[in-house]
Design goal:
The protein is mainly alpha-helical. Helices cover about 45% and strands about 5% of the residues. A two-stranded parallel ribbon has the order 1-2.
Length: about 100
Amino acid sequence: EKQRDRYPTFVDFYPELVSVFRGLSEKHLGQDFYAIPFKGTINAAVVDRTSAILVVPTNEKDKRVQEKIHSFVGNIQKRFFKGRPILTDKEALQKDFRDTRAD
């Protein structure tokens, strides 16, 4: 998000991801790198739902897609994260979440 001028779309950023994965695949990282200690469900990954923050994009090229994402996140909030904030990506980038619960 901070480099939208360099990577305006996911398609522009995708080669960077491929480069990272290629680099990782060429290294001998050892077994610890590949260990996956968490064995719970995806719902268990969010331990404290009372401090969750949902973030939605604001710079999608297709505004209909952006609206669908916002709607989907709104439904997720109602179902799983009642009362938790939904921030835009721009709002989230302006916040310092290190020592607060973002309320």
